[in-house]
Amino acid sequence: MKRQVEVTLLRDQAHYDELVAGAIAGAKVSLWIATANVKELRVEAPIGSRARAQGRYRSIMEVFEELSARKVEIRMLHAGVPSRAFRAELARRRRPPLAMQQCPRVHLKMVAVDGRLLYLGSANFTGAGLGAKGAGRRNFEAGILTDDDVLLDEMQGTFDAIWSGRECAGCRLRAACPAPLDGLGAGAEAAAAKRAVNRAESRGRRLR
After folding, report:
1. 112 FRET partner, CA 20 to 30 A, in 7, 129, 150, 174?
2. Could you read off the pLDDT of 5-20 as tens digits, one per residue?
3. Residue 109 contacts residue 34 (beta carbons within 8 Å)
Protein backbone atom coordinates (compact mmCIF):
# COMPACT_ATOMS: atom_id res chain seq x y z
CA MET A 1 0.00 0.00 0.00
CA LYS A 2 1.35 3.40 -0.97
CA ARG A 3 1.57 5.98 1.78
CA GLN A 4 2.70 9.55 2.09
CA VAL A 5 5.62 9.87 4.51
CA GLU A 6 7.30 13.02 5.77
CA VAL A 7 11.09 12.82 5.54
CA THR A 8 14.04 15.16 5.90
CA LEU A 9 16.75 14.76 3.28
CA LEU A 10 20.27 14.60 4.69
CA ARG A 11 23.23 15.27 2.42
CA ASP A 12 26.91 15.29 3.29
CA GLN A 13 27.53 17.60 6.31
CA ALA A 14 23.92 17.26 7.47
CA HIS A 15 24.69 13.66 8.44
CA TYR A 16 26.97 14.97 11.16
CA ASP A 17 24.96 18.05 12.17
CA GLU A 18 21.50 16.48 12.37
CA LEU A 19 22.15 12.78 12.89
CA VAL A 20 25.33 12.51 14.96
CA ALA A 21 25.56 15.80 16.87
CA GLY A 22 21.78 16.02 17.09
CA ALA A 23 19.81 12.78 17.23
CA ILE A 24 22.50 10.32 18.35
CA ALA A 25 24.01 12.57 21.02
CA GLY A 26 20.52 13.31 22.34
CA ALA A 27 19.35 9.68 22.63
CA LYS A 28 17.45 8.97 25.86
CA VAL A 29 16.34 5.31 25.66
CA SER A 30 17.92 3.34 22.83
CA LEU A 31 20.27 3.64 19.89
CA TRP A 32 20.35 0.91 17.23
CA ILE A 33 22.95 1.21 14.48
CA ALA A 34 23.40 -1.01 11.41
CA THR A 35 26.42 -0.52 9.18
CA ALA A 36 28.56 -2.45 6.75
CA ASN A 37 31.83 -0.83 7.87
CA VAL A 38 32.89 0.41 11.31
CA LYS A 39 35.69 2.93 11.74
CA GLU A 40 36.75 5.37 14.41
CA LEU A 41 34.58 8.47 14.27
CA ARG A 42 35.56 11.83 15.72
CA VAL A 43 33.11 14.43 16.97
CA GLU A 44 33.39 17.97 18.26
CA ALA A 45 34.00 18.51 21.97
CA PRO A 46 30.97 19.67 24.02
CA ILE A 47 29.80 23.25 23.57
CA GLY A 48 31.21 25.51 26.27
CA SER A 49 34.21 23.28 26.99
CA ARG A 50 37.82 24.42 26.72
CA ALA A 51 38.43 21.63 24.22
CA ARG A 52 35.65 23.03 22.00
CA ALA A 53 37.16 26.51 22.19
CA GLN A 54 40.49 25.02 21.12
CA GLY A 55 38.86 23.23 18.21
CA ARG A 56 39.67 19.78 19.57
CA TYR A 57 37.76 16.60 18.74
CA ARG A 58 36.99 13.44 20.69
CA SER A 59 36.07 9.85 19.94
CA ILE A 60 32.44 8.85 19.41
CA MET A 61 33.19 6.27 22.10
CA GLU A 62 33.11 9.08 24.66
CA VAL A 63 29.61 9.97 23.50
CA PHE A 64 28.61 6.31 23.80
CA GLU A 65 30.02 6.21 27.33
CA GLU A 66 27.93 9.24 28.30
CA LEU A 67 24.81 7.69 26.79
CA SER A 68 25.49 4.36 28.49
CA ALA A 69 25.89 6.13 31.84
CA ARG A 70 22.39 7.51 31.27
CA LYS A 71 21.16 3.92 30.71
CA VAL A 72 20.74 4.29 26.94
CA GLU A 73 20.82 0.86 25.28
CA ILE A 74 23.29 0.94 22.36
CA ARG A 75 23.41 -1.87 19.81
CA MET A 76 25.51 -2.05 16.67
CA LEU A 77 25.12 -4.58 13.85
CA HIS A 78 28.07 -4.64 11.49
CA ALA A 79 29.47 -6.74 8.65
CA GLY A 80 33.20 -6.08 8.54
CA VAL A 81 35.91 -6.15 11.18
CA PRO A 82 36.07 -2.72 12.90
CA SER A 83 39.08 -0.58 12.05
CA ARG A 84 42.23 -0.71 14.16
CA ALA A 85 41.57 2.79 15.54
CA PHE A 86 38.01 1.84 16.56
CA ARG A 87 39.27 -1.34 18.25
CA ALA A 88 41.93 0.67 20.08
CA GLU A 89 39.32 3.10 21.43
CA LEU A 90 37.16 0.17 22.53
CA ALA A 91 40.15 -1.49 24.23
CA ARG A 92 40.74 1.62 26.36
CA ARG A 93 37.39 1.16 28.07
CA ARG A 94 37.07 -1.16 31.06
CA ARG A 95 33.49 -1.91 30.03
CA PRO A 96 32.11 -1.63 26.50
CA PRO A 97 29.50 1.13 26.26
CA LEU A 98 27.73 -0.71 23.43
CA ALA A 99 26.82 -4.24 22.39
CA MET A 100 28.15 -5.32 18.98
CA GLN A 101 27.19 -8.27 16.80
CA GLN A 102 28.60 -9.19 13.42
CA CYS A 103 26.74 -10.56 10.42
CA PRO A 104 28.62 -10.68 7.10
CA ARG A 105 25.41 -10.01 5.18
CA VAL A 106 24.65 -6.68 6.84
CA HIS A 107 24.88 -3.96 4.24
CA LEU A 108 22.04 -1.69 5.38
CA LYS A 109 22.90 1.67 6.88
CA MET A 110 20.38 2.47 9.56
CA VAL A 111 20.12 4.38 12.83
CA ALA A 112 17.06 4.19 15.08
CA VAL A 113 16.95 6.59 18.02
CA ASP A 114 14.59 5.99 20.95
CA GLY A 115 12.13 4.19 18.68
CA ARG A 116 11.02 7.61 17.44
CA LEU A 117 13.51 8.66 14.76
CA LEU A 118 14.91 6.65 11.87
CA TYR A 119 17.81 7.26 9.50
CA LEU A 120 18.15 5.27 6.27
CA GLY A 121 20.79 6.14 3.71
CA SER A 122 24.22 5.58 2.27
CA ALA A 123 26.46 6.50 5.21
CA ASN A 124 28.45 3.83 7.00
CA PHE A 125 29.55 4.32 10.61
CA THR A 126 32.87 5.88 9.62
CA GLY A 127 34.52 9.25 10.01
CA ALA A 128 34.18 10.05 6.32
CA GLY A 129 30.52 9.09 6.40
CA LEU A 130 29.25 10.52 9.69
CA GLY A 131 32.13 12.22 11.51
CA ALA A 132 33.21 15.83 11.87
CA LYS A 133 35.12 16.06 8.61
CA GLY A 134 35.88 19.02 6.41
CA ALA A 135 33.89 19.37 3.20
CA GLY A 136 36.86 18.37 1.07
CA ARG A 137 37.40 15.11 3.00
CA ARG A 138 33.84 13.96 3.63
CA ASN A 139 32.15 11.29 1.54
CA PHE A 140 29.28 12.33 -0.69
CA GLU A 141 26.36 10.82 1.23
CA ALA A 142 22.58 10.99 1.05
CA GLY A 143 19.84 9.65 3.30
CA ILE A 144 16.53 10.41 4.95
CA LEU A 145 15.45 11.08 8.51
CA THR A 146 11.87 10.34 9.52
CA ASP A 147 9.63 9.79 12.54
CA ASP A 148 7.17 7.68 10.56
CA ASP A 149 5.83 4.91 12.82
CA VAL A 150 5.37 2.34 10.04
CA LEU A 151 8.90 2.72 8.73
CA LEU A 152 10.26 2.63 12.27
CA ASP A 153 8.38 -0.58 13.06
CA GLU A 154 9.49 -2.21 9.80
CA MET A 155 13.16 -1.37 10.14
CA GLN A 156 13.42 -2.02 13.86
CA GLY A 157 11.80 -5.38 13.19
CA THR A 158 14.38 -6.05 10.48
CA PHE A 159 17.22 -5.08 12.82
CA ASP A 160 15.88 -7.26 15.64
CA ALA A 161 15.41 -10.26 13.35
CA ILE A 162 19.08 -10.11 12.36
CA TRP A 163 20.28 -9.32 15.88
CA SER A 164 18.39 -12.20 17.47
CA GLY A 165 19.48 -14.72 14.82
CA ARG A 166 16.05 -15.30 13.32
CA GLU A 167 17.48 -14.77 9.83
CA CYS A 168 20.25 -17.35 10.31
CA ALA A 169 18.29 -20.54 9.60
CA GLY A 170 17.60 -19.63 5.98
CA CYS A 171 20.98 -18.03 5.28
CA ARG A 172 22.86 -19.59 2.36
CA LEU A 173 26.13 -18.25 3.77
CA ARG A 174 25.71 -19.83 7.18
CA ALA A 175 28.46 -22.43 6.58
CA ALA A 176 30.97 -19.65 5.99
CA CYS A 177 29.79 -17.49 8.89
CA PRO A 178 32.32 -17.34 11.75
CA ALA A 179 29.62 -17.11 14.44
CA PRO A 180 25.96 -17.48 13.41
CA LEU A 181 23.84 -15.33 15.70
CA ASP A 182 21.25 -18.05 16.31
CA GLY A 183 24.00 -20.16 17.87
CA LEU A 184 24.18 -17.84 20.82
CA GLY A 185 22.33 -19.02 23.92
CA ALA A 186 21.20 -17.33 27.10
CA GLY A 187 23.27 -14.30 27.98
CA ALA A 188 24.40 -14.12 24.38
CA GLU A 189 24.72 -10.36 24.16
CA ALA A 190 26.81 -10.10 27.32
CA ALA A 191 29.02 -12.97 26.23
CA ALA A 192 29.42 -11.54 22.73
CA ALA A 193 30.29 -8.13 24.14
CA LYS A 194 32.83 -9.69 26.50
CA ARG A 195 34.46 -11.58 23.64
CA ALA A 196 34.58 -8.39 21.58
CA VAL A 197 36.26 -6.53 24.43
CA ASN A 198 38.75 -9.33 24.99
CA ARG A 199 39.65 -9.32 21.30
CA ALA A 200 39.92 -5.54 21.28
CA GLU A 201 42.08 -5.51 24.41
CA SER A 202 44.37 -8.12 22.93
CA ARG A 203 44.67 -6.15 19.70
CA GLY A 204 45.13 -2.94 21.65
CA ARG A 205 48.04 -4.43 23.58
CA ARG A 206 49.65 -5.45 20.31
CA LEU A 207 49.23 -1.91 19.01
CA ARG A 208 51.07 -0.35 21.95
Report:
1. 174
2. 999 999 999 999 999 9
3. yes
pLDDT digits over 118-167, tens only? 999 999 999 999 999 888 889 999 999 999 999 999 999 999 999 999 99
Q: How far apart are CA 11 and CA 14, in angstroms?
A: 5
**Residue 75 carries which DSSP code?**
E
| Ramachandran assignment for 187, one of left (phi > 0), alpha (psi -120 to 50 degrees), beta (any other) | left
Please, which residues have CB within 8 angstroms of residue 120's CB and are 6 or more apart in sequence? 108, 109, 110, 143, 144, 146, 151, 155
Q: Of 2, 8, 6, nearest to 119 (Cα)?
A: 8
* Helix 188-207 × helix 84-91 angle, to 10°: 110
Please provide the DSSP assignment of 24-68 as one string: ITT-SSEEEEEES-B---EEEPPTTSHHHHTT-EEEHHHHHHHHH
Closest CA to 106 of 16, 171, 169, 61: 171
d(CA 64, CA 203): 21
Give the residue with greater pLDDT, 3 vs 82: 82
Say what the pTM is.
0.85
| Distance between first and last Cα of the chain | 56
- Residue (of 190, 168, 185, 152) closest to 75 by Cα position: 190
DSSP SS3 for 162: helix
Q: Encode burial over 129-139: b for 16+ CB neighbours within 10 A, e otherwise.
A: bbbbbeeeebb
